[in-house]
Amino acid sequence: MPSPTTMPVAEMFVSLQGEGIWLGVPSVFIRFAGCNLACTWCDTPYASREPLECRDVAVDEIVAYASQDTEVRHVVLTGGEPMLQPLLPGLTGDLKAQGLTITIETNGTIPPGDVVCDLASLSPKLPNSGHRAPTVSPGTPDTFRRWLDHCPCQFKFVIQAAQDIADVRTLLEQLQRDVQPERVFLMPEGRQADQIAAKTDMLVELCRQTGFRYGRRLQLDLFGDTRGT
Q1: Against a cut of 0.90, is the pTM above it?
Q2: Which of 3, 57, 64, 138 could form a disulfide with 9 if both were Cys (CB 3.0 to 4.6 A apart)?
């Protein structure tokens, strides 16, 4: 179990941001272990499902790792689900004190609280996720509204079939906020090139119809389905 000064970390690495509005930006990734959802197509099971592959890392060590390269000033806190970590607000404050730009990648089931964040990358789980944690709701409009009122946000939706767009539109309408289409990304479900290619035409057409953005997954293009990228 983590101590009061450590956090369960599955991996830390430097790569390029592969998704969203900061696509291609060199970034430090801190992947925390543990998740409160259980999506059938989860692409980081080692950080999300038991037995978790992680080690307890001191907060000071995380800050030192994230801030060591003066040329890489973006840090991405991801998982699993990083918002499960009680020490996250303090960590984000320490990272911001180092002048870092912070993205939190979250499923949106937990409100922001006191975290410091330059961009919340919200990934609402649609019915297509096959979510299997019945004691946890896969995100509510109220929680997403609290994120939108807390910091700049983007939305990333994993799309399996064209009919998923109805669920996307329904959620966005329920938010009662002005979410700009360029902040909404439609991402093809899949971890292999052939799986993604099979959905490309469908995603392109959905983007044309809605004004939403195609959610490229640059890390798969560059490195394949590989950890630490």
Answers
A1: yes
A2: 57
| Eight-state DSSP code of residue 184 | E
Indicate the number of domains in the chain.
1
- Taking 60 as the threshold, does the pLDDT of residue 75 lie above it? yes
Give me the residue label for tokens 């993205």.
Answer: 103
- Amino acid 207 reads C
Query: Domain for residue 38, yes or no?
Result: yes
CATH of the domain at 45: 3.20.20.70
Name the percent of the chain lying above pLDDT 90. 78
Among all chains, which residue has been given the structure tokens 């990934």?
123
| Sheet with 184-188, side-by-side order of all strands | 55-58, 6-16, 26-32, 74-78, 101-106, 119-122, 153-159, 184-188, 213-214
Residue 1 maps to a domain: no
Strand ranges in 133-200 using DSSP code E only, listed in sequence order: 153-159, 184-188
Name the residue range of residue 57's domain.
6-223
